[in-house]
Design goal:
Number of strands: 14
Structural class: alpha/beta
Strand content: 5-15%
Radius of gyration: 26 Å
Order of helices and strands: EHEEEEEHEHEHEHEHHHEEHEHHE
Number of helices: 11
Distance between the termini: 49 Å
Mean pLDDT: 86
């Protein structure tokens, strides 16, 4: 089937709708670090280059065999506290996780594609303070994987960067840390021995700050220095030269259980402080959360405003996603021609779809919040208090089921091996497509979820299937089908928002008070 041209790559600011539609307000144009919700569980996201023994550091912190933390390439590992040890793989395209044993000798399930995440639950006191999340190596994240990591770190609250003594920060890693630096995310560094142990001291003694300073030679006599401290300080100096905002980050050399104890205590201390701070953000009772709210004497033509806002936001989001999909197609072609080749196409596209899902979800959430606030302000005569806004949002969410018979919004769009898009409905299906799921969600709409089916891996990793032209054509068709599927879903979502919010506010206008 002949495909239409992909949208041109222009600035999102140049994408405007018809003149008769109002602007939808600023929408996020990329996934990044966002503040966590007050009820979001604390988490520590571990990241770093390959060869830094990151898995060994995490196993030492948890007192586990490193084999227990092994996951398929490209999958995330989420370690939680539980009385009974369990391990399960969450794979897009399935509603239920694939369970396998939680002992070191248990073999993983035979899967057509890598899971988005593997959840390991073990009885470990440290995990009572926070969840531990291990992500793929930094060299394999790419643009999209880094965006997913930033979103997860923002919700979790802490980032643990593990690097070996004989490794240097890459440009991509420095860019990642530079994006995290100005945010509230706590950044902690762990340095492990390199292949030859701790790096030897060069050119005599050197002075270090904050990591066991060495003693300079006195009277010509050679003084033994701490190679571990000098190595840690060298890494710290290299980082601060590029990212000076991380001057307050703490550094820990880790090579055994004793040295890991300091890192463990630092993470527990952070969790205690962060837990108290999050608990104080959301008061027990918000203003306007209870009681009746009067409606404005003359709310005007609020329903027409609601219609325009819903159409405008749907159109704006469709345009943003079309631009992002055009960029994804370009990166897919680069991977085919200049990267791993056809075999690397499924991994790259799946990471891209994960980041695209987060972006579409964030845009829908922000747009719906803006619509509720804007139209409710006209009906009530003043901007609603946060408690009132949440009551309206809850009533809208409750009414969504009445306006979507046969069209579930809890839906995963799966790219098939034939470059088509299949649909799988259900909240469990959406959960299986998440790299790091939220414990609870207060937004009106369910998350957007797009992923690749296992057939895509089977097709492009088959030996001998290395036709670059066919892969480029396949990726273009797949991206186009995702664009069409997302366009339909975005339109449907804002249509049911328009209908449900219209019922809630119409009832308030008829009664003269908001009863939501």
């Amino acid at each position: 089937m002949k495909q239409g041209p992909l949208p041109s790559v222009d600035s999102p600011d140049d994408m405007t709708g018809p003149a008769d539609l109002p602007t939808c307000g600023p929408l996020p144009t990329r996934v990044g670090v966002a503040g966590p919700a007050p009820d979001e569980p604390l988490g520590v996201v571990a990241v770093g280059p390959a060869g830094a023994e990151r898995r060994a550091v995490l196993a030492t912190l948890l007192g586990l065999d490193p084999v227990m933390l092994t996951v398929p390439a490209g999958s995330w590992l989420v370690v939680r506290n539980a009385k009974v040890p369990t391990r399960a793989a969450f794979v897009p395209g399935y509603r239920q996780p694939h369970s396998y044993g939680a002992d070191r000798d248990a073999a993983g399930p035979a899967l057509a594609r890598p899971p988005r995440r593997v959840e390991l639950s073990v009885p470990e006191p440290l995990l009572r303070h926070f969840t531990l999340i291990d992500v793929p190596d930094t060299a394999t994240l790419g643009v999209s994987g880094t965006r997913v990591l930033l979103e997860a770190a923002g919700r979790a609250g802490a980032l643990l960067f593990v690097i070996a003594a004989d490794q240097a920060f890459t440009a991509a890693e420095l860019n990642l840390l530079a994006e995290v630096a100005p945010t509230p995310v706590e950044v902690v560094f762990a340095v492990t021995p390199g292949a030859a142990g701790w790096a030897p001291l060069a050119d005599g003694a050197a002075t270090t700050e904050g990591a066991g300073a060495s003693v300079p030679p006195v009277g010509g006599a050679e003084t033994e220095v701490d190679a571990v401290a000098v190595t840690v300080e060298a890494h710290r100096a290299a980082l601060l030269a590029a990212v000076p905002a991380l001057v307050g980050a703490r550094w820990f050399p880790v090579d055994d259980a004793d040295t890991a104890a300091d890192l463990r205590r630092a993470l527990v201390g952070w969790a205690s402080r962060e837990g108290l701070q999050r608990a104080s953000v959301d008061p027990p009772m918000l203003p306007g959360q209870q009681g009746r709210v009067a409606v404005a004497a003359d709310p005007g033509d609020w329903s027409e405003r609601l219609d325009r806002q819903a159409r405008s936001c749907a159109q704006r989001i469709r345009q943003h996603l079309a631009l992002e999909l055009a960029n994804i197609h370009l990166r897919a072609v680069q991977e085919i021609v200049f990267g791993v080749g056809c075999a690397g196409l499924p991994d790259l596209l799946d990471r891209e779809m994960a980041a695209l899902s987060l972006l579409a979800t964030a845009q829908c959430d922000q747009a719906v919040r803006g619509i509720v606030t804007d139209v409710a302000s006209q009906v009530l005569g003043a901007p609603p208090a946060e408690g009132v806004r949440r009551r309206i949002a809850a009533a809208v969410q409750y009414g969504l089921a009445d306006h979507r018979p046969g069209h579930e919004l809890d839906k995963v769009l799966l790219i098939t091996s034939t470059a088509g898009v299949a649909e799988l409905t259900g909240a469990e299906a959406i959960d299986a497509a998440a790299s790091y799921p939220a414990a609870s969600r207060s937004e009106v709409l369910p998350p957007v979820a797009v992923a690749l089916s296992g057939g895509c891996w089977q097709r492009w990793r088959t030996p001998g299937n290395d036709d670059h032209s066919a892969a480029r054509a396949w990726s273009q068709r797949a991206v186009r089908e995702v664009e069409l599927g997302l366009s339909r879903e975005i339109s449907r979502r804002f249509e049911v928002i328009r209908l449900s919010l219209g019922v809630v506010l119409s009832d308030a206008v008829d009664h003269g008070i908001l009863l939501a």
